[in-house]
Automatic annotation (TrEMBL):
It holds the Pfam family RNase_H. This is Ribonuclease H. It comes from Spelaeicoccus albus. GO terms for molecular function: magnesium ion binding; nucleic acid binding; RNA-DNA hybrid ribonuclease activity. Its main location: cytoplasm. Mg(2+) 2 binds at D8, D130. It catalyses: Endonucleolytic cleavage to 5'-phosphomonoester. GO terms for biological process: DNA replication, removal of RNA primer. Keywords: Cytoplasm, Endonuclease, Hydrolase, Magnesium, Metal-binding, Nuclease.
Length: 228
């Protein structure tokens, strides 16, 4: 038997108040959040919490995710990061390493596969997970309790599970302009070939394009002014 589960994350402002959710059906879903995080952290957390909730499950779990970063991190890049002590090929630390390490632990002896679905498209499970993740983020923004859902309620083929440890939300990485008191705007003009190369380099490093651009700008400013 195959069980399809959608996992999604949300961050208002990205980064900002963040939420996560996984969804099977109206009777089997979970969600949560924290005051400050990113979309990627939200979706990674949804994946982690799903695996924690289904420890001992015999059936294959098919995870439906709309983030290529999350899918490729787990299925392609993680083995290399792990061999290098959770560092990228250039020696820099892996982003969201604590989440990646926790997911790697949960994946041992698990029957699973990932499938990409278009975000904000017409897949009903993705829509349901997205709404719940967004609702959790909105609740934290408003300072209200988030709806956490019934959790994993299915017992088909499930062995005795280990206790599920509470998950502490990761401390988000500092953004480029955390210590800047005035608005700063950068304009980057690229042709199609340059855009493709930029996207490819970000993928090679296992980071979102926005984060890759922030690193480029930070390095440029550091060399220009010497005080950043």
């Amino acid at each position: 038997m195959v069980i399809e589960v959608a996992a999604d994350g949300s961050a208002l402002g990205n980064p900002g108040p963040a939420g996560w959710a996984w969804y099977v059906d109206e009777d089997c879903w979970a969600a949560g959040g924290w005051p400050y995080g990113t979309n990627n952290q939200g979706e990674l957390t949804a994946v982690l919490e799903l695996f924690r909730a289904t420890r001992g499950l015999d059936e294959q779990v098919v995870l439906l995710c709309d983030s290529q970063y999350v899918i490729r991190s787990v299925t392609e890049w993680m083995p290399g990061w792990k061999r290098r002590g959770w560092r990228k090929s250039n020696g820099s630390p892996v982003q969201n390493a604590s989440l990646m390490q926790a997911i790697d632990t949960e994946l041992q002896d698990r029957n699973y596969r990932f499938e990409w679905v278009k975000g904000h498209g017409d897949h009903p499970l993705n829509i349901a997970a997205d709404r719940r993740a967004h609702a959790a983020a909105s609740a934290f923004q408003a300072g209200e309790p988030a709806q956490t859902g019934p959790g994993w309620t299915r017992i088909i083929g499930k062995k005795d599970s280990k206790p599920i440890n509470p998950y502490e939300a990761p401390t988000p990485a500092a953004t480029l302009f955390d210590d800047v008191d005035v608005p700063v705007t950068y304009t980057l003009e690229l042709d199609s070939d340059e855009s493709e190369r930029l996207i490819g380099r970000a993928a090679d490093d296992g980071v979102p394009v926005r984060q890759y651009l922030q690193t480029i700008v930070r390095d440029h400013l550091a060399h220009s002014s010497g005080n950043i």
